[in-house]
């Protein structure tokens, strides 16, 4: 998440917490939800895509998550740290859908439309032409990591704090710390190899 | 303070910052579709929810105004209203489960129609139930979904606003392809929604496999009145917040280990 996007989301969260003492009307809740959508839709879509979801399914999952946010606010539920809340709900919905997709895949085989929407992990022609070798190394190192480490790194890359990552993934703060320490060390080694080859 | 005096840690911090920036650039260097279409779709769906919420509020105000007008028409009218109210009250003692649910503040759609969805189970042992991973059943076929919605006279609604839920979850031996075990449960428009029912199903599964609750008892609880079962097992009259549920899960895990 860019700094401006982080600031916008943090500002929205503060506005919502400040409004926590008073009841919000449906239109006001709708406005806040749309502002949050504008600020977090791209990071959420990137994260959901990193879980292997096709983009169109990722969009639908994010829609469901924001509809759930509307209902959450309408029922007067807690409003602190809604950024972590929306990531957690999106994460859970994506895992559920991915599990269902895998079962359908085992049962019926892959659909061509779904295959077309899967991200191609090989470097694009642009990356090859402009020599973004470093990103290739980092992406390969990322793809080789255990799934939990990948998720922690992806969420960290989107600007979530350690505590928020722990809440999204349902793991302890210590586990997040260990995972990120280990993963960043691996990335560092991959980065070092890339620098070594350049020289 | 430490960083000011420790060059090794300053170097390490700079290295981590550089790596984090490279990681962020790598992860965010992906072309995404424009936000416009998805934004418009969300706005449209939210507008429907807002209109529904405003319609409920207006309806409540109209009902109150109608009562006030009747009361203002003099003692005779008041007596007639009182007698009418008495007759209606007597009739309401013979309520169906749906009407009693309304009186308890639970919209009818939060519970299935017992004549349409009585529930159905398959032959399964306790060992099978506890050996199965969660969500072992795939998506409900679209044709079956449409059949259930037709039975509930909801054939014109958007599928995404409802979950075609199993009354008795397959994880507890419910039949997966029987229309009598399926019903359209709203996602968002009611407090007692499909997500709340998921929490109850997970809890019952844990308790059944821990031999705390018999499998037929869990199945009966889901088939008859899952909201009453939720209130009973979670000792609450309203759905629990996420933090409270997490504490219950932790306590259940400790109990199993102990």
Key descriptive features of the protein:
heterodimer, A: 199 residues, 10 helices, 78% helix, B: 258 residues, mainly alpha, 2 strands
Can you describe this structure?
The complex is a heterodimer of chains A (about 200) and B (about 260). Chain A contains ten helices and no strands. By secondary structure, chain A is mainly alpha-helical. The longest helix of chain A is centred in the middle third of the chain and has 27 residues, at about 80-110. The radius of gyration of chain A is 19 Å and the shape is globular. In chain B, helix 9 (about 215-225) packs across helix 10 (about 225-235). Chain B starts with a helix and ends with a helix. The interface of A and B includes residues 37 and 67 of A.
How are helices and strands ordered from N to C of chain B?
A: HHHHHHHEEHHHH
Radius of gyration of chain A: 19 Å
Question: Cα distance, first to last residue of chain B?
Answer: 45 Å
Task: Indicate the mean pLDDT of chain B.
Answer: 74
Low-confidence stretches of chain A: 112-120
Largest sheet of chain B: 2 strands, antiparallel
Radius of gyration of chain B: 26 Å
The number of E-state strands of chain A comes to 0
Strand content of chain B: under 5%
Task: Classify the secondary structure makeup of chain A into a structural class.
Answer: mainly alpha
| Largest sheet geometry of chain A | none
Strand arrangement in the largest pleated sheet of chain B: 1-2
Order of helices and strands of chain A: HHHHHHHHHH
Most extensive chain interface and residues per partner: A-B, 51 and 39 residues
What is the tally of helical segments of chain A?
10
- Helix amount of chain B: 55-70%
Secondary-structure topology with pairs:
The complex is a heterodimer of chains A (199) and B (258).
Chain A: H1 3-18, H2 26-50, H3 55-74, H4 82-108, H5 112-117, H6 125-129, H7 133-143, H8 147-157, H9 162-169, H10 173-198
Chain B: H1 2-5, H2 7-28, H3 35-71, H4 74-92, H5 97-103, H6 126-131, H7 142-151, E1 162-166, E2 182-186, H8 194-209, H9 215-224, H10 226-234, H11 242-257
Antiparallel strand pairs in B: 1-2
Helix pairs in contact in B: 9-10
